[in-house]
Amino acid sequence: MEIKPHDVLLAIDVQNDFCPGGQLAVAGGDEVVPIIHKLEPLFEHVILTQDWHAPNHQSFASAHPGKHPFEQAEMSYGAQTLWPDHCIQGTSGAEFHPDLKLTRAELILRKGFRPQIDSYSAFFENDRATATGLGGYIRDRGFRRVFLAGLAYDYCVGYSALDARRLGFPAIVIRDACRAIDLNGSVSQIEADFAEAGVDLVNSSDLLDQRHA
Ligand code: VGL
Ligand code: ZN
Fold first, then answer.
1. Among 3, 26, 68, 205, which is 20 to 30 Å from 56 by CA?
2. Cβ atoms within 10 A of the Cβ of 68, count?
């Protein structure tokens, strides 16, 4: 698959708290860093996202007395999975992985800062209605296809890919450049959603091979 000048690489939430040793560690989360580094030169445009929660965020189990991480809670917008405290604004856990070097990135999009709403997707918060502005940015910049990598495959990467499709952008998830949380069938669920929404899955080798084509 050939990368074109109007394509954009979206590196989702490659942050310390989603890497081994972090508060919401994803198995092998740090392994996406060298793969993203290999992909980066293919793209003229790179955007980073950063999960960026207020300390009292309502997606944290700690904000719900008697509840534990990975249980569900009812929010104004429906059911919400509760997480360990993670990616709190200004903490080291919220920083990008120290090895991540995407100096050409043109935008860092922060999400999940409203205490009452979580935001898995880089485009819409979990009420599925509050826009982050990323859709407008991508449209205004004239980008057309959205390629996604990062953490976590079955949450923030997946929801972002589905919303990209909802906004009419072709969305391509680079599978080996992601790692999953895999909670209660979340991987098979997101892949069923991908199939229905027309999200494409590729591997980094499918993109890197173009150099030899
Ligand atoms: C994420 C759960 C909570 C993610 C963020 O980046 O996939 N998952 N916050
Ligand atoms: Zn979060």
1. 26
2. 10
Closest CA to 118 of 171, 162, 167, 63: 63
Helix (H/G/I), strand (E/B), else coil: 191: helix
CA dihedral for 14, 17, 19, 25, sign (positive or negative): negative
Atom number, ligand 1, closest to the C-alpha of residue 156: 7
Give pLDDT, residue 209.
84
The C-alpha atoms of residue 27 and residue 1 are separated, in whole angstroms, by 28
pLDDT tens figures, 26-73: 999 999 999 999 999 999 999 999 999 999 999 999 999 999 999 999
Tell me, using a 6 A CB cutoff, whether residue 194 lines ligand 1.
Answer: no
Query: Where are the strands (E) in the chain, listed by range?
Result: 7-12, 45-51, 72-75, 78-81, 107-111, 145-151, 171-179, 200-202
Per DSSP, what are the bridge partners of residue 85? Answer: none
Task: Identify the DSSP state of 87.
Answer: -
Q: Which of 111, 154, 163, 178 is catalytic?
A: 111
Rounded to whole angstroms, the Cα distance separating 180 from 29 reads: 8
19 lines ligand 1 (CB under 6 A): no
pLDDT tens profile 176-196: 999 999 999 999 999 999 999
Rounded distance between C-alpha atoms, residue 139 and residue 158, angstroms: 20
Q: Please tell me the distance from the alpha carbon of residue 61 to that of residue 54, in angstroms, as a whole number.
A: 14
**Quick one: average pLDDT of 80-102?**
98
Neighbours of ion ligand 2 (CB under 5 A): 51
